[in-house]
Amino acid sequence: MAGHIDAMRERYEAFSQGDIQHATDNWAEDFVWEGSNSTALPGGGRHTGKEQALQVLQRVLEGWDEFRLTADEFFEDGDSVVVLGHTELKKGEHSAKLPVVHIWRWEGDEIKRFQILTDTLQSAQLLGIA
Prior knowledge:
The chain is α+β, with helices and mostly antiparallel strands.
């Protein structure tokens, strides 16, 4: 299906404006969120189901004093979209700009799976858990 990149750009734009509803409206009911292996980090671990994934997203946003995500590049191959970007994080007096890779898997008009790759050590250090 053509147009996954355009749909993803639209969702990242909605997310950056705080419109979580629009950013997540086509997540499948059996959506799978795959964060880092560390469940101590906000967004870490594997979570199944749209409602559970939305709760994880909320924990990510609440886990930082400041959280800003910027999508820099989008690539599409079949039903997969890869987004290269960065997050700007702040916790207390500490802040960092971390590279991030998001891998999205589509099935028809729904997003079925989301995988996050980032610098988990630096994230843990910012949170004071490493």
